[in-house]
Amino acid sequence: MIAVVACKVDLESSRVVSTEEGKAFAESHGLSFIETSAKTGYNLENTFTNISQQIYDKIQSGELKMQDGWDGIRTGFSRSENTVRLMEAEVERDGCC
User: Fold this and answer.
1) Which of 4, 16, 9, 15 is nearest to 43 (CA)?
2) Residue 6 CB: number of other CB atoms within 10 A?
3) Residue 22 pLDDT > 70
4) How large is the average pLDDT for residues 18-38?
5) DSSP code, position 6
6) In Å, how far are 30, 46, 80 from 5, measured between CA atoms?
7) Please, are residues 72 and 44 in contact by the beta-carbon 8 Å criterion?
8) Inter-residue contact 33 to 23 (CB < 8 Å)
9) Sorting pLDDT into bands at 50, 70 and 90, what band is 76?
10) What sign does the CA torsion over 67, 69, 73, 74 have?
């Protein structure tokens, strides 16, 4: 599933591509379009929910098929614990996000 996700929508004064241009690009390529802001949280949950729903719908309709060994959609993975531990990484912050 591919979607055009415009980010940093909270920085209106720095905008290079208008909403209309983004929508037109997405539409011309048969993609969905949504604007987001990690800073304010605007549309973040909606973005993941919409893309997840589109993938689910395509699986249900048979348009996408889950199969092991493919890097796209997988049926799951085995793990020895009931929890998934994320590796801690140093992240350099510059005041953004």
Assistant:
1) 9
2) 20
3) yes
4) 93
5) E
6) 14, 11, 35
7) no
8) yes
9) low
10) positive
Type of residue at 78: S
β partners of residue 35: 6
Q: What are phi and psi of 3, to 5 degrees?
A: -140, 150
Closest CA to 46 of 14, 76, 9: 9
Return the structure tokens found at 67.
């199969």
Q: Are 35 and 9 in contact (CB under 8 A)?
A: yes
Per the listing, tokens 């614990």 go with 81
| Lookup result for tokens 């959609």 | 73
CB 40 within 8 A of CB 71: no
Q: Report CA 94 to chain centroid distance, whole Å.
A: 23
